[in-house]
Design goal:
Layout: E1 10-15, H1 19-30, E2 34-40, H2 44-54, E3 58-59, H3 62-66, E4 73-76, H4 83-92, E5 96-99, H5 107-120, E6 124-126, H6 134-145, E7 151-159, H7 180-196, E8 200-208, E9 219-226, E10 231-237, H8 262-273, H9 277-283, E11 306-310, E12 313-318, E13 321-326, E14 329-334, H10 343-353, H11 363-382, E15 386-387
Helix pairs in contact: 4-5, 5-11, 6-7, 7-11
Length: 388
Amino acid sequence: MTAPRSNSPIRIGAVGLGRAFTLMLPAFTQDPRVQLVAGCDPREVARTAFADHYQLPAYETVDALVADAKVELVYIASPHELHAQHTELAARAGKHVLVEKPMAITEAECAGMIAACVRANVMLLVGHSHRFDTPIQHAREILEAGVLGRVRMVQSLNYTDFLYRPRRAAELITALGGGVIFSQAAHQIDIVRALVGSPIARVRAFTGDWDARRSTEGAYSALLWFGCGATATLTYSGYGTFNSDVWCDEITELGGASVPDAFAKTHVRFAQNQSDEEAAKNARGFVGNAAQTPNGPIAHEHFGPLIISCERGALRVTPKGIWVYSEAGAKFKPIAAPPIARQEVIDELASVLRNKTPARYDGRWSAQTVAACVALLKSANTDADVTL
């Protein structure tokens, strides 16, 4: 592959045209630093919609997409259980890789992905994860300045309707990365790791499986101990009763305005769509309709309330900015809404590929998050602490 100019757009081929792809579309199509050049999906309806909408090639197989000379970077948004296979295919073809979280579902798969990209001398980044969110990055900068002292304790909470959104059967099977651990705990673990800045040493966790219609891990609580002595508590429920947007300025996870009774409506749709859930799932992916992609954000994305307690103060991270609490009182640092959703991911891509900056969230980083997810499940299943 011819080396690209330092100021040329990063040419992206997308593997998987489902929901994750639609959420990245604003960044892929509106940021001039990247250019969407091809798509891939096993579903003919998705390929047809992509080809018709963008007048770009849409491949049935990953092998065909990675063979396209125009593709510089492969964005992998296929099902979790295929991330390792598709990453290794891309690497063997000499393509850089951006893979959606979770990086994979076993530590062995992560190691294979890292090794494949090292052998091919290509970049491996993992995202989107909410650690990319601008308020999280600003909080990290405040913590690194040291004015509040060392991080001692973090609380991260999130209550969503995750379990009752349309799902493929595999999305309820833990061994295939289903349930909320790999899909949702990966966000929280990434966030607290980025903020604490120390390896996780030990995990203790509980998981909830409370609805026979959706028998999988639908909730969890976990306590993480870090090597530096800090702790973090993570709580998540995807059962769609309480909505933690009420604690986040009535802003949704995607940075839009929260809709009253949204979770009740999710439950109604779930009851109506159970007979044809696959069709409902496909409708949430790319169908060539602009209405399928989110409107522009009115605030930053978030993953629920987040409080960081330090030696000399505390931070509360919100979609609109950061509250700083100290002996001097409370001060709010506002953060303007982003012009493009998930543009922070493109910032990282451009920094690494065009400016040759070392990756902050590379494969090794994300492999440690997968290890923590595995430890969380093991702790819940054995009712014991798990050491990493």
